[in-house]
Amino acid sequence: MPENATDESPRETVDAVVIGGGAAGLNGALMLARSRRSVLVIDSGAPRNAPADGVHGLLGLEGIRPAELLRIGREEVRGYGGRIVAGEVVSAAAAQPSAEGDLRFTVTLADGGTLRTRRLLVATGLRDRLPDVPGLAQHWGHGVVHCPYCHGWEVRDEPIGILAVGPASLHHALLFRQLTGDLVYFTQGTEPDEETRARFAARDIRVVDTPVARVESTEDGITGVRLSDGQVVPRRVIAVATTLLARTDGLTGLRLPMEDLPNGMGRHFATGLAGRTSVPGVWVAGNAADPTAQVGASAAAGALAGAHINADLAAADTDAAVAAARRGETAA
Questions:
Q1: Class assignment of domain 131-239?
Q2: What is the pLDDT of residue 50?
């Protein structure tokens, strides 16, 4: 099936709608479809890791291209009867419960289509907000990286610069020092204390306090970091801790609770066991709930949420069957 293919949206109420077609959403849908649930995945086609050359740290699929991983996942979901619909959610909200009192939700897409579902799995992922440094964003996912486990091996032994944004960057520096002997820490006004400077010096991490003016590059990639005094520090890679913001587009009607990450590093959906939220019938999985999760962890969270959604539906189905049986007994 073509990569951008979309399935027909059902007119009937489905068991579950999954908002987000990444690793978490597809794995959640897979668990539901294998449990013979009617499930539909809404895929906006904008995965967070699209700029990356490969997915790493994923046992058995090390280095697979992100697009290929998702293509395989979509095929697997469809193989069990799940549907994948290309589109963007503009609104989602609780609707009138069924006659038996079971939960209902309405999801509206940008093309005007409307879906009705018993349960929702939000797997929208997150957006990475980069510091406002000229020349930085254009190299995101290649010369500009954020995760030593996702990209570290690929940039090993390169001259790397840490662009500090706050306390998280101190930890960042120690992790990237494991990967290269040529590391420069650009403080960007974060003012590391003397103990931190001593630790950096012991690991041969050079500290630069002069503000960064821009990132220099050619067609071949990053060449250096230009400072406000005009000096250029040669670098091939910039590592930066981004601000991690869960994607909430179209979801405000659900009134899902949010939580802030420490030190202003981002915001995500608040969840409990297996991604269940305080809003009945709604689960969240993947980076939207756990911003630091890699692909494998996100997929696992989606699978767990899918299993719990199926269990919740099984309980609701049983409640409805018991109520129907009692009505039959009363009528007799």
A1: alpha beta
A2: 79
